[in-house]
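Kindly inspect the following:
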Amino acid sequence: MNVRRIHLVRHVPPVSPGLLWGHGDVAPAVVDCAVLHQRVQEVAPTRLVSSDLARAMLPAQRLAKKLGLELETSPVWRELDFGAWDGLAPEAIDVEALTAFWEDPEGNPPSGGERWSQLCARVRRGLAALDDGALVVTHAGAMHAALSVLTGLDHHGVWAIDLPYRACLTLRIWPGSTLAGQVVGLDIGDALP
């Protein structure tokens, strides 16, 4: 059986954390992060992929140089598109609309934004294209979607898992007509911002 081990790492904090950053392209607070570099070195990736958004891509470019790997970027690994809410603080959004979204992101997506199923479909394609040893620098939403795709947990189940900045999630994926896998490691490490 040809099992693949894939590593997903959440990007470093953006310059303005605490806001709903989806497809909005905000810069990272730091580009060279020792904690992120150490975490990536520990898994010894054979391939490096990143979201094409700056908060993931710029630190990934630095990692690629340090690891001697070519960086591939892809919009497949972007965060959930928050549409009209992108860049807003949660308290700036109508509380009923935000509550409805958290309860049912499929039936109540942000205005102009993406449904949960659309994010999961994107991530499913992304996972299928990765080979053993690949590491992806991505976003919490995409990591939660990967967990949902592989385990069958709904959004409530996967959103209960805290994935702070620089968290590393290691997944084992079995071959087959549908993706099936298990979480084999979650390193959330330090609590630094």
In short: The first helix runs from residue 34 to 43.
